[in-house]
Specification:
Layout lengths: L2 E5 L10 E9 L2 E4 L4 H6 L4 H7 L9 E5 L8 E9 L9 H14 L5 E5 L5 H14 L32 E5 L6 H25 L7 H15 L2 E5 L1 H7 L2 H7 L7 E7 L7 E12 L19 H16 L4 E11 L11 E3 L5 E3 L7 H14 L4 E6 L3 H7 L4 E5 L2 H13 L4 E3 L17 E2 L7 H10 L7 E6 L5 E2 L10 E2 L4 H13 L4
């Protein structure tokens, strides 16, 4: 993990591999953002003109490297675009700072230390820059750079250096290290970013190494380290407890399902927030096998469980005055002679029966059991997170998750929370008329309904398993959970850790009493 320091050094005197400054789009060309005054001075006040000559415009995410003049200790200046400059005396948007810092950190992979002289007028600004830099510096290299055991030791192939390592240290300049608010913002950024990156690691881990049992072991180890109580129900306990959804989905695999409970408690907490995560460690579709071309990224189908796990640990690390309980519904969905068949009927933990018409609509089955179990503890609110439907990607694209709820005010609060922390989301309805499409002549409900509005149908199904009187929201993160394109901002290729920032902020708001 990249280290973060609040440096007392000035930009001109900091010894580092590079200095990062911000540049924005002004009315008449690029303008240097606050924080870079000392660097601009070293360029005789002509940094913006030099950047414009090199083709820089200040557009969001644009990166321009140039050699530093003699007045700076660092050999390289990296100018990163912030987008349009704010109105006179206006502040830069936190998300713009977060993305710019992420772009800069990615561009500096392989460097040992960089000074970030981006705008940090407030503690919020400093936290955004720190968070963006730490997230942008992420790289998943666990399976790269191995020694070539076939090639002769003297050959060039045996001397491969492996992938570039992430930026080693982010030195935040102008962030007032002796100010309690700035220190708290930096500490929060470290805790949240480290847990998001932990979630990313889990999402990126190949399914031959990450399966329900091994995921549960990771959660157990982290719980011991961070004071979170962990309880794991294995196949025998799930069968005995009547968790028909988890057993039904997981029975086709040699890796049995697990239900993991993570409990962070605060002695002065007045509210309890329950989080439920879909944890399909690999989704083949089961007997309703996915077509060719749709299997390769299905290791990411446990992104919801990874987000819940990361959030509970982050809440503990931050010492939030709220009880946060996480439920990881873990299973591997595989076809075999023992797999659930289309037409089978499962008796769920709630007692309801479900006719399985499509075994690739499995996420809602494991979530249903976990939602019922979470409801038994009567939390003040439940939020489930899942890469649930391709229909939500069709509706909202690859960067926005959908928010559904059984309470309009709670749905609005979750949506506003996501927007506050820079995660794109959109409120979606749960039309009652979609319930009829899941009527079954054999069971209480079928696991699929109308094809149109499939993301909403899934939400309507889940609502059936939430306890009476409990505020509940469903986040369908199927789009933003796994990024297959080129990295941008602080978003890497592969697992993103989508929704962790939203859930952590929701826990903070709950602790502060902002959610009622």
């Amino acid at each position: 993990m990249t280290a973060l320091t609040l440096s007392t050094a000035g930009a001109a005197t900091l010894r580092a591999d590079a200095l990062v400054v911000g540049v924005a789009k002004g009315a008449k060309g690029p303008v240097v953002a606050p924080g870079a005054e000392a660097v601009d001075k070293a360029f005789d006040g002509k940094l913006a003109a030099v950047l414009e000559t090199l083709g820089a415009s200040g557009a969001e995410g644009e990166v321009t490297k140039l050699p530093a003049p003699s007045g700076l200790k660092a050999p390289v200046v990296l100018a990163v675009g912030l987008g349009r400059a704010p109105e006179r005396d206006g502040a830069y948007d936190a998300e713009a700072l977060r993305r710019a810092a992420g772009s800069a950190a990615r561009a500096l992979s392989g460097a040992k230390k960089a000074g970030f002289a981006l705008p940090t007028e407030s503690a919020e600004d400093a936290g955004a820059v720190a968070e963006g830099a730490l997230l942008g510096a992420y790289a998943f290299t666990a399976y790269q750079g191995g020694e070539d055991k076939v090639a002769p030791k003297s050959s060039k192939s045996a001397k491969k250096s492996g992938p570039k390592q992430p930026l080693g240290e982010v030195a935040l300049l102008g962030a007032k290290p002796r100010d309690k608010a700035f220190k708290a913002a930096a500490d929060r950024a470290v805790a949240v970013a480290e847990e998001i990156n932990r979630a990313r690691d889990l999402i990126n881990t190949p399914p031959n190494d990450l399966y329900p049992e091994s995921f549960a072991a990771v959660a157990t180890a982290a719980g011991k380290e961070h004071g979170v109580k962990v309880q794991v129900l294995d196949e025998k306990a799930l069968v005995k407890g009547g968790y028909g959804g988890l057993i039904g989905v997981g029975q086709g695999s040699t890796h049995g399902p697990r239900l993991v409970k993570l409990a962070y408690t605060h002695p002065k907490a007045e509210k309890t927030l329950a989080l439920v995560g879909k944890g399909i460690t690999y989704d083949s579709g089961g007997i309703s096998l996915k077509p060719a071309g749709h299997n390769e990224t299905m290791k990411c189908d446990m992104s919801g469980a990874a987000a819940v796990f990361a959030t509970v640990v982050a809440a503990s690390r931050l010492g939030l005055r709220v009880n946060v309980t996480g439920w990881l519904a873990l299973a591997e969905n595989m076809p075999s002679g023992n797999a659930t068949r289309p037409g089978d009927v499962l008796r769920m933990y709630s007692g309801k029966t479900v006719e399985v018409l499509n075994t690739d609509a499995e996420g809602r089955l494991v979530l249903a059991d976990a939602l019922t179990r979470a409801s038994e503890e009567a939390p003040d609110a439940i939020v489930d997170v899942a890469t649930l439907t391709g229909a939500m990607v069709v509706a909202l694209g690859n960067r926005t998750f959908g928010v559904m709820a059984n309470d309009d005010a709670f749905r609005t609060a979750v949506h506003e929370t996501a927007e506050e922390v820079g995660e794109a989301s959109w409120p979606m309805p749960l039309p009652d008329d979609l319930r009829k499409g899941m009527d079954s002549p054999t069971a209480d409900i079928a696991n699929i309904g109308e094809r149109m509005g499939g993301g909403l149908v899934a939400g309507v199904f889940l609502r059936e398993f939430v306890g009476e009187g409990i505020a509940w929201a469903h986040l369908d993160i199927a789009g933003p959970a796994f990024h297959e394109g080129a990295p941008y901002g602080y978003t890497p290729k592969g697992g993103t850790g989508s929704s962790v920032r939203t859930l952590v902020r929701l826990a903070e708001r709950t602790a502060a009493g902002d959610l009622g």
